[in-house]
């Protein structure tokens, strides 16, 4: 199967980190294609960044439809543009936040999330409520690290994530930790070792869920709100979205 792994920010180093972590966990026969939009924010740390990145995600889905992708992963913890992306394809589309919440709820009755900046914690809280996992999550904690510090100042960033993870273990009455950023895709083993709790990471969780859905021949339902968008004209720099017709 061809699994298109979309890093919604435009930092190539982070796309590579995410792609390598996914490839390491993928089953034989799962071909990971790690991509990022041609245009957009170098990191996603606000509602505005998300709004812009969500358009890039749609363009990557359409590119995957041309390339014959069997499933898609949106590898940003805000799951930007997830429902819109599902409208554009029959293939499964999985957001790493949703994937991590599902997996964490299968191994613990309570978990906490450790994300990057405090200002993005609300985005994870909104998703927890939207996906129906709010009662499973004790706290969304922030290590207060800019996303790109994971690429540029990894050691210090990891130390802050470990500190926050240890605080969550001591204070939150939880059984597991969820890592709240795609850029943390390569940190699972190190954080598990340092904190001493099961750690769920969204990119690798999403790879396994995508493989499961494709293995079950389950794809995005085209009945109801995730049906293909009605073809229409788009103007200006979005003209290339005009007359979108569903893949045969
Ligand atoms: C992510 N930002 O996973 C989110 C994390 C965050 O560029 N990739 C990003 O802080 O919301």
Automatic annotation (TrEMBL):
Pfam families: Asp_Glu_race (PF01177). The lineage of its organism: Bacteria, Pseudomonadati, Pseudomonadota, Gammaproteobacteria, Oceanospirillales. Its EC number is 5.1.99.5. Belongs to the HyuE racemase family. It comes from the Bacteria. GO terms for molecular function: hydantoin racemase activity. This is Hydantoin racemase. It catalyses: D-5-benzylhydantoin = L-5-benzylhydantoin; a D-5-monosubstituted hydantoin = a L-5-monosubstituted hydantoin; D-5-isobutylhydantoin = L-5-isobutylhydantoin.
């Amino acid at each position: 199967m061809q699994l298109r792994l979309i890093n919604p920010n435009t930092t190539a180093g982070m796309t590579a980190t995410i792609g390598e972590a996914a490839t390491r966990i993928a089953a034989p026969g799962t071909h990971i294609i790690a991509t990022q939009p041609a245009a957009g924010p170098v990191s996603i740390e606000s509602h505005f960044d998300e709004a812009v990145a969500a358009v890039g995600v749609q363009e990557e889905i359409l590119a995957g439809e041309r390339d014959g992708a069997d499933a898609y992963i949106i590898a940003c913890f805000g799951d930007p543009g997830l429902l819109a992306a599902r409208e554009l394809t029959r293939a499964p589309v999985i957001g790493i936040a949703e994937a991590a919440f599902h997996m964490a709820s299968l191994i613990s009755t309570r978990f906490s999330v450790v994300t990057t900046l405090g200002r993005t914690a609300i985005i994870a809280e909104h998703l927890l409520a939207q996906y129906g996992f709010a009662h499973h999550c004790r706290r969304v904690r922030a290590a207060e690290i800019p996303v790109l510090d994971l690429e540029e100042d990894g050691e210090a960033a990891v130390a802050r994530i470990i500190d926050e993870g240890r605080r969550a273990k001591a204070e939150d009455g939880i059984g597991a930790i969820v890592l709240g950023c795609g850029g943390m895709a390569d940190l699972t083993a190190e954080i598990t070792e340092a904190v001493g709790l099961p750690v769920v990471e969204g990119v690798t969780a999403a790879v396994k869920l995508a493989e499961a859905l494709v293995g079950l021949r389950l794809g995005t339902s085209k009945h109801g709100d995730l049906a293909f968008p009605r073809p229409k004209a788009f103007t200006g720099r979005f003209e290339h979205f005009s007359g979108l017709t569903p893949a045969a």
